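Table S2 (text version). Query chain:
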Amino acid sequence: MKAQIAASHPKKIHISKILFWIVLCVIVVFWAIPFLFMILTSLKSNADVFGAPPFALPTTLNWANYLDAVERVNLLRAIKNSITIAVIKVPIGLIISAMAAFAITRLKMPFSRGILIIFVLGTLVPIQVALGTLFEIINKLGLLSTQLGIILPYIAFGIPYEVLILSGFFKAIPTEMDEAAHIDGASNFRIFWSIILPLAKPALAALFILDFVATWNEFSMALVILQRQESWTVPLTLQGFNSAFQTFYGPLNAAIIISILPVVIIYLLFQRYFVEGMYAGAVKG
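Corresponding structure-token output:
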């Protein structure tokens, strides 16, 4: 009887793996369909777009759509603005969040749990609720349509979530490492910089990717603060392109594809650390 159960067990595992891969392939196909549609449309002329089925191949590959997308709305300027904002905002926000999480979890300070709860509550505040007040503050500071005026709110709204994630990761690091470092004469900053941060590299890399994508795609605050067209980020530029050239689907889809390339590059650069960070977070909880 036991031999029969043992013999049937590998077969069950094999069937479950097959079902898993079937479901995974179906999900990938559903996710890939919009991207395939965008790629095909970005290479079509208006005649192909309106005169053929959506997923029909273009009669000729109209690469001029990409050049048209760049020239019509100065997409490269928008990409430069978005990259500048993200490259400044994301590292600064991560460092501030890591320092706050270190202080809450590794230092013996009063009310640390209450402070963490405040950060948790900060993650529950919708951005839309604060847009009116945020506009008044940025306007009084004279920072409308400036990169500093959008970077500061981005950092403020990103810190609570990052502190919450990093606090959970830092708690999983044994405190004996801190005690041993203190015995050797290391300061708290030395422990933070030389021990905690290197161990938290997977979590930081995962947050870097998530924060970069969130900053790149953010629309609401950018719409309120960035009033002048030359200060627009990629989402605002794409929205303006769609409003001004609604029937030019080829250049519009070409602009969308160009705009996602920096995000794809960032993900590919940090992919290994991103996977490690997600795995570590799942295991250490």
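Notes on Table S2: Residues 281-285 have pLDDT under 50 and may be disordered. The two ends are 40 Å apart (CA to CA).
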